[in-house]
Amino acid sequence: MTDTPITVADHGPIRHVTVNRPDKLNALNAATLDALHDAFGQAAGDEGVRVVVLTGAGPKAFVAGADIAEMADLSATRGRDFSLRGQRLMRRIETMPKPVIAMINGFALGGGLELAMACHLRIAADTAKVGQPEINLGLIPGFGGSQRLLRLAGRAATLELCLLGAPITAERALQLGIVNRVAPAAELEAETRKLAEQLAASAPLALRATLDIVNVGGECAIEEGLQYESAQFGLMFATEDMREGTRAFLERRKPAFEGR
Ligand code: COA
Hints:
Layout: E1 6-11, E2 14-19, H1 30-45, E3 51-56, E4 61-63, H2 68-71, H3 76-94, E5 100-104, E6 107-109, H4 111-118, E7 121-125, E8 129-131, H5 145-164, E9 168-169, H6 170-175, E10 181-183, H7 188-200, H8 204-217, H9 222-236, H10 240-250
Parallel strand pairs: 2-3, 3-5, 4-6, 5-7, 6-8, 7-10
Antiparallel strand pairs: 1-2, 8-9
Helix pairs in contact: 1-3, 3-4, 4-5, 8-9
Bound molecules: coenzyme A.
Coenzyme A binds next to helix 2 and strand 6.
């Protein structure tokens, strides 16, 4: 449906969220940002969902950026509001209590790369192109891209992408650490499914703690980060999943984790 900016579908414990504006290469307008924010809020609170896969509809794009038509006439104040709206979504995704995989099926440009970088893992088709082309519009990244790219891939890559504005191939993005994996386009869905199934069978509370310590540790001094890791490590001993995981290892069987 063209007037539905996103679609949501469950395959067992795997929730698929798809940006659904293929005619506009899935560009993020305000309505799409809000719909995504709601969808991730729901996925966060739904115990049946163990992992989320985010992608874009159609054969060409993951997301080709913030909606340029919607941005073109914004005032400075509204421009700032639009940025804050996008940043709110990215933070919602980044702080999800369960893993989110970006399945980059085509262009991930501007807000599209920012969206992918807010996810916890990124798998890209070998045909995908990623970049921060805002400079070509007289703009800069506004959904957290400058900050996340810097943390993900360092200063050299950030300045290269943001100053030059040229898209790079999936393979180069892999070299720079911007994506985790690259798959042949025809195998992207199957490879993503494998990743998602592995995460869905993993221990939910330990996954959550991992996401948490990485989010917190990325922003604090090492002593604080180490203390937080120890606290979370200790907490795992209060979970049934930890007993199940260690027992299953000793009994040479597969663990069945229930998130308790
Ligand atoms: N915002 C709004 N609309 C967008 C868009 C965006 N970021 N990206 C693509 N579209 C729209 C186009 O305007 C076009 O709409 P139309 O058919 O109504 O004219 C449609 O999507 C298809 O895009 P088109 O440019 O014709 O496809 P292409 O294959 O020739 O080029 C791209 C693909 C990705 C190279 C090109 O669309 C592009 O450069 N997009 C903008 C990327 C960008 O600067 N993103 C950062 C925004 S801050």
